[in-house]
Each structure stands twice: as structure tokens, then as C-alpha cells.
Amino acid sequence: MTHKITLAHSPDPDDAFMWWPLADIDGTGPSIDVGEFEFELVMQDIESLNGASVEGLYDITAISIANYPVVASTYQLTACGASLGDGYGPKIVGKEQVSLDLLFNGECTFAVPGLRTSALAALRILAGERKCNWKVVDFTEIMDCVSTGECDAGVVIHEGQLTHEEHGLYELCDLGTWWQGETGLPLPLGGNAMKRDVDERFGEGATERISQLLLQSIEYALTNRKKSLAWALQWGRGIDLACTDEFVEMYVNKWTLDFGDAGKQAVLEFLSRASKVGAVPAIQELEFV
């Protein structure tokens, strides 16, 4: 009996790079043996996926780490498939070189990619007790929003971390660099989550078998990098192959294969600090499968 599994991810080079081996992308079937499972890939922007996870729409889904406390009763984080910024991450950008203290003066507004995103949570941790105003803008429009002066600064994610200078914008703060300086840890941005009822619906041991398939998909993609990059390039929104490769290297790496102890500690620290500034609900412990 075939079990259909929905796997939702953002339409970005790093996610596309990881998961194509699970699906039939060219009519020849999956690139790895997926056993009794049939994977359907669904692509939506991360804020839409955060909302969908609240409703439990997909069996497996990418989510912002900041959104996990809200959906922890429905989903478990998988040990693989995460995006951690190891000394880098979303960037605060502006039209002019100005200090963060000036931006946190209560009169400036940041363009952010979503209320549930780790980018906003990291911004709020950085702000601390300082006044922080934000406006939600589609992540593809944040740089234009800053360039036109609609917002005073913006938090750019995805390929915007590499291309903001082409839009005439200055880097004011790399949140991943700042976070690592504060904690000595990578900045946990995105996670992969699987519904808790998978064993109940698909049979005992299904969660473990699917987790192994997810890891095998990432390993296959890394081994077959050229083919993976060719697939991922379709979602690069104008960036070339070299830039796609650079971006994928940033977010598909050792942390993606396994959070590891340091990665799990980073998630706990991030959620603890985010909770203290009111950015996320408190969560006491994490489960990884």
C-alpha cells in the first residue's frame, strides 16, 4: 500500500536543493528508494507555511524556528533539514549607514518578512528593551520597500542576504554574526517539522523511516551537487549559478544533516531569549525525530 506524504517547503534554492530526490520531477520516479511512500512537494513562502502549520495542513513542512512553540503540540522537529546561520544570517539593511540605536528610537520602521518568522524574532531579541516598530512586507519586496523610503530599514532573508548591495542598500547588521558573538552559537532560522500522528496514520515506525528518507534525500542531493544546483537554480529569483551555489552552501551543510548538540542548544537559547522579549510563547523542551 502506498502512503502519500505532503512535504511543504519554501520556493528557495536551499529547500529545493534538498528535497527533489524524494519526488518524481521528470517522469522517471524518485531518485532514491522511498519504499511505501509517495512524496508530493508543495511550495509556499515561509510565512504562508508558518500559517499552514498552525492548521496542520501538511505531513512535513518547513517552518520558522520562531513558529515552533505555536505548533509543538502538532509537529516534531526533524533532526535534519534545518537552516542555521553559522556566523551569518538575515541582514538589517538601509539606504544609509546609520546606527542601530537610531533605528530603535521608536520613530523608525523595519520591513520584516512575516510575524511568525525567525527574522523578526531575532530583530526583537536584538532590540531588547529598545523600541522596535515593524511592518510585514512580502520578502521579495523588502529591498524595494527600503529603497523607496517606505520603511527606514529592512530585514532581508534568502538571496537578499547576498544581493542587497546591488539594490544600493547598506548592511547595518548581520543578525547571524551578532547572535554568534552574543552566544557562540549558530542562529537557528528554519526547521523541518513532521506531524506527531504519522505512526498512527501510516503504521508503527513510519516516523523513523520517513526521517531516514529525509536524511537520505539531503545526502543524495549533496553527492549529486551539479544536478541539485540545476534544479535549485529555478527558484533563485534572478541569481546566477555561482550565487545559487554560494547560497546553498550557506544553508545546506553539516547543520542540515543533523542539528547536533550545538544546534539543539542554539534552538533552545534562541526560543528562550525570544520568549523573554515577547516574540514567541515559552517552550520548556524540544523533541527531535
Please give a structural write-up.
The chain has 289 residues and is an alpha/beta fold. The protein has 2 domains: 3-84 and 188-276, Periplasmic binding protein-like II (D-Maltodextrin-Binding Protein, domain 2, 3-Layer(aba) Sandwich); 91-183, D-Maltodextrin-Binding Protein, domain 2. It is built from 14 helices and 11 strands. Strands 1, 2, 3, 4, 5 and 11 form a 6-stranded mixed sheet that branches. A 5-stranded mixed sheet has the order 8-7-9-6-10. Helix 1 crosses helix 11 (225-232) and helix 5 (118-127) crosses helix 14. It starts with a strand and ends in a 13-residue tail after the last helix. The model has no long low-confidence stretch (mean pLDDT 93).
Structural key phrases:
289 residues, alpha/beta, D-Maltodextrin-Binding Protein, domain 2, 2 domains, six-stranded mixed sheet, five-stranded mixed sheet, globular
Q: Compute the CA-based radius of gyration.
A: 19 Å
Into how many domains do the coordinates divide? 2
Q: What would you call the structural class?
A: alpha/beta
Fraction of residues in helices?
A: 40-55%
SS element count, helices: 14
Protein topology:
Blueprint: E1 3-9, H1 13-19, E2 37-43, H2 46-55, E3 60-64, H3 68-71, E4 75-77, E5 83-85, E6 91-94, H4 100-103, E7 105-112, H5 118-127, E8 131-136, H6 142-147, E9 153-156, H7 160-163, E10 170-174, H8 175-183, E11 187-195, H9 198-202, H10 206-223, H11 225-232, H12 241-251, H13 254-257, H14 260-276
Parallel strand pairs: 1-2, 1-3, 7-8, 7-9
Antiparallel strand pairs: 3-11, 4-11, 5-11, 6-9, 6-10
